[in-house]
Amino acid sequence: MVEIKKGHLLKAVLFDMDGVLFDSMKNHTLAWYRALSSRKIPCERDEFYQYEGATAEWTINLIFERTYHRQATKQEIEELYTLKSKYFNELPEARPMPGAKEVLKIVREHGLLPVVVTGSGQQSLLKRLTEEYAGFVDASTLVTAFDVEHGKPHPEPYLKGLKKAHAMPDEAFIIENAPLGVKAGVAAGVFTIAVNTGPIPEKQLQEAGADLIYPDMSALQKYLPQLLAGHHNRA
């Protein structure tokens, strides 16, 4: 069994948001599918699970290059993302992921700082994040699509998360659920745990470089104290 390296001074845990803290990916995928289909742009709903963690610009450009063999204009990106956000906000409210708050409590009990690193720019969900997880997450420990030039799978989001935590790569670990996010964590040099909360084949998370894989946040909650046992931290 792979373990977080013992003997290291752990300072922080970097969390993805969608599919980790909120059960929101089914809403994101449906909203993307409706937005693009309304403009007669061919796509499949489930393909958007593969793009989780990327910025909206990256996702739209990927679809445009495939469909039109060009990148989208700034106006096209803004219009499509506005439409996607409209559809997202019309859907039933995404609930907190089962086990997520318990994982955050364990992290705090071990003296570690939670930092959220998300590719999302969905304002309605970002607002709920700091409300639902008050006491664990606030604006000072949040990295979003608005804070980076390069989204996941580029390491920039997680490198910025480390900076917010005043931590080096070996002083933190990541909790992710998507291949692009896992790749970003690995590229940042951080131990990365995947929770497979969507329809992504586990093999894809393995190939992306996940150090450990759990079926969901509740399973991680069960094993996290054991994983953290014997670690020094700043408490």
Automatic annotation (TrEMBL):
Task: Report any Pfam family annotated for this entry.
Answer: HAD_2
Record Gene3D superfamilies: HAD superfamily/HAD-like, Putative phosphatase, domain 2
Keywords, A to Z?
Hydrolase
Q: Per its record, what are the GO molecular function terms?
A: sugar-phosphatase activity
InterPro entries documented for this protein:
HAD-like_sf (IPR036412), HAD-like_SPP (IPR051806), HAD-SF_hydro_IA (IPR006439), HAD_2 (IPR041492), HAD_sf (IPR023214), PGP-like_dom2 (IPR023198)
- Protein name from the UniProt record: HAD-superfamily hydrolase, subfamily IA, variant 3
What is the protein's species of origin? Odoribacter splanchnicus (strain ATCC 29572 / DSM 20712 / CIP 104287 / JCM 15291 / NCTC 10825 / 1651/6)
Upper taxonomic lineage: Bacteria, Pseudomonadati, Bacteroidota, Bacteroidia, Bacteroidales
